[in-house]
Amino acid sequence: MKQFQNLITPLLVIGLFLSSFNFGPREQQQISFQEFKNKLLEPGLVDRIVVSNKSVAKVYVRNSPRDPASEDVVQGPINGTPARGSRGQYKYYFNIGSVESFEEKLEEAQEAMGIDTHDFVPVTYVSEMVWYQELLRFAPTLLLLGSLLYMGRRMQGGLGVGGGGGKGARGIFNIGKAHVTKVDKNAKNKVYFKDVAGCDEAKQEIMEFVHFLKNPKKYEELGAKIPKGALLVGPPGTGKTLLAKATAGESGVPFLSIAGSDFMEMFVGVGPSRVRNLFQEARQCAPSIVFIDEIDAIGRARGRGGFSGSNDERESTLNQLLVEMDGFGTTSGVVVLAGTNRPDILDKALLRPGRFDRQITIDKPDIKGRDQIFQIYLKKIKLDHEPSYFSQRLAALTPGFAGADIANVCNEAALIAARNESGQVTMDHFESAIDRIIGGLEKKNKVISKNERRTVAYHESGHAVAGWFLEYAEPLLKVTIVPRGTAALGFAQYVPNENLLMTKEQLFDMTCMTLGGRAAEQVILGKISTGAQNDLEKVTKMTYAQVAVYGFSDKVGLLSFPQREDSFEMTKPYSSKTAAIIDTEVREWVAKAYEKTVQLIEEHKEQVAQIAELLLEKEVLHQNDLLEVLGERPFKSSEITNYDRFKQGFEEEDKKSVKIPLINGAEEEDGSTPLEPQVVPS
C-alpha cells in the first residue's frame, strides 16, 4: 500500500498532462472537409466513408483513381505520396460537426461534380469504443477519487496524534484507539529488577502483583482477591517508570503502557473511547498489567479548574477510567499501575480501595541506595578502579540526588573524560561532573576584578572556617572561587549526614555557618557586598521555619503555620499581631546567630586570611588543604558520618552494623531466624 501511495502523485500529474491532448489515429492523416472534397472526392479516389461514433469520418481510398490523369493530385499537401495500397485502404479522416450537415455537404459536392446518385460514395455509420477516449471521459472522476484516496491515506498516516509521518494506527480514522506500547515475553531490550536499585521496598511490593498474576490459585484458595492496582508515588527522577519497565520484563504477562496525556485529544469523546479500547485490549490478553504514566494528566480532582456546566473532556475520561477499574461490568485479571509525582491533586474516587488499593512511595534514595544505583551505572563505564571504589565515595558526594541525577552524573563524567581524551574515567572526572550539575557550567573566561576576586575568596573562607569550628555544622569537603553558572562566583561543598530529625542547636549552627561569609567580609575587609544574598535567603527561610512551623519559639508557642508553595490564599492563617511577633522573633534569632558568627571569625581571623590567600593562589581547596591550615576538627561524631563513608567506604560500617533480616524467611548461617537479628560484636 505504501508503494501505491508513492505512485499516486506522479500518476495524477501524468493524467492531467495527457488529458490536455486530443488523441487520434497515428497511422492515418487528418484532413479538412475542403481537402477531402478537392483532393480525394473530385479525382475519384474515395472508395467509401465510415462515420465512427457520429464524430469522425474515416476515408477509405481506392487502389487507383477513377480518372488516371488526376492520379498525382493527392501528392503534396496530404502526405507527399500518392495514396496507393490495397483496395479500400483507410488513409485519411476528418471530424464532422453533425451527421445531417455532413450528409448534406457530401451530397451537394457529388451533385456539383455530376456524379450519378447510384455512384455516390457509400457512407456507413458504426459505433466504436476507443480506450483513450473512454479514459478521458472518466478522467475527472478518476482524478477526484484518486485525490480523495491520497488525502485520506495521508490523514490516516500523518495527521493523527503522532504528527506527520506517523503510523496508520495513530491516524485520524483510528483516533478512538489507545496508543498502547505493548511488551510481551518475547520483547527485546527488556529491563529487569536487577537493573533497578535504591528502592528495595517498592520492588518487593511490585513483585507481589507479579506473583498474583502468575499464581492466582495460591491466593484464591485462602480467599484473597488480587489487588486492582497500585499507584507509584515519588519525586521526579526516582525511577517510577523504570520500575514499571522492570515489572514488564519480570512479569512474563502482557504489559500495556500508555501516557496519561495520550488519552486527551482535540475531539470530544476520544478520551473515554481510548480508555475503553485500552481495557478491552487488556482483557483480551488477561492476565495482564496496564501502566498509565503521569496519570495526573487525566486524574485531577473533578470540579477544579473548569467552568460549571461545561463539558469537560478530562472529567469524562476520568469517569470512564473509574468505571473500567471498578465498575459494574469489570472483570478480573487486569492489574493497573500508575505513576505520578502529584498524588495530592488526584481525585479521591481514584485513590479508594478497589481501584488503586496500594500507594507505593518511591523516595529519593539514601546513601546506601545511591551506592547501589551508582554500581549499576558504573558497570557501563570504563573506569580506572573497581566500581565499588567509586560508588561508595560518589554516594556520599551526592546527597539528595535521585536515580536520574545519578545517571546524569555518570554520563557527564564519561563526556568529560572523552573531552579530555582520557582512556579511562577517573575520580576527578566524577567530581567535575558533580560540580557541573550542582553549580553549573564553569566559566574560566569570566572577567572578575582583583577586588571582587579577593572579596569572594574571603567570603568562601568565612564559610569554611565557621563550619569547621561549629559542632553541628556539616563537614566541609571542598571550597572554590571558580565562577559557575549565571551568578555563582564561588561555592563551598559540604557532606551532609541526611538526618531525619534536626534539633534547635543543629539548625542554629547551620545558620551561623551560612552567615560566615558575610561575617568574614565585615570583620576582615571592613565592608560588605551583595555576595551574601543567597545566604540571607537561606537563613530567612530556615529561621521562619523554626519560629512559625517547628514551634521552637517560646513567644509564638506550640503553633505551626506551614506555608504551601502552590497555595494562592491571600490571607494568612494568623493575625497581624502574631505576624509581628514572628517577624520580631526571626529578626532576633538571626541577629543572635550573626553575633556568634562574628565572634567566631574574630577568634580565627588569621586562619580565615590564610585560607583566603590559599584560595586566591589555588582557586580550589580540598579537605587536605584545610587540614594543613586549620588542623583537625575539634568535634568528633560518635557515629559514622557520610564524610567517614566518603573517606573509608562502608567496610568498617558493615562490620559494626546489625544484620538485616532475610526477606525469604531462610535461617542465617549461625542458625538465627530473620525475626531475631543477631548483633555482630565489634
Automatic annotation (TrEMBL):
Residues 226-366 form the AAA+ ATPase domain. The keyword Chloroplast does not apply. PROSITE patterns: AAA. GO terms for cellular component: chloroplast thylakoid membrane; m-AAA complex. Pfam families: AAA, AAA_lid_3, FtsH_ext, Peptidase_M41. It is a single-pass membrane protein. One of its GO terms (biological process) is mitochondrial protein processing. The keyword Isomerase does not apply. Residues 1-19 form the signal peptide. GO terms for molecular function: ATP binding; ATP hydrolysis activity; ATP-dependent peptidase activity; metalloendopeptidase activity; zinc ion binding. Its cofactor is Zn(2+). Its main location: mitochondrion. InterPro entries: AAA+_ATPase (IPR003593), AAA_lid_3 (IPR041569), ATP-dep_Zn_Metalloprotease (IPR050928), ATPase_AAA_core (IPR003959), ATPase_AAA_CS (IPR003960), FtsH (IPR005936), P-loop_NTPase (IPR027417), Pept_M41_FtsH_extracell (IPR011546). It is found in: Mitochondrion inner membrane. Keywords: ATP-binding, Hydrolase, Metal-binding, Metalloprotease, Mitochondrion, Nucleotide-binding, Protease, Signal, Transit peptide, Zinc. Residues 662-682 are annotated as: Disordered. Probable ATP-dependent zinc metallopeptidase. Involved in the assembly and/or stability of the complexes I and V of the mitochondrial oxidative phosphorylation system. In the C-terminal section; belongs to the peptidase M41 family. Belongs to the AAA ATPase family. This is AAA+ ATPase domain-containing protein. It comes from Cannabis sativa.
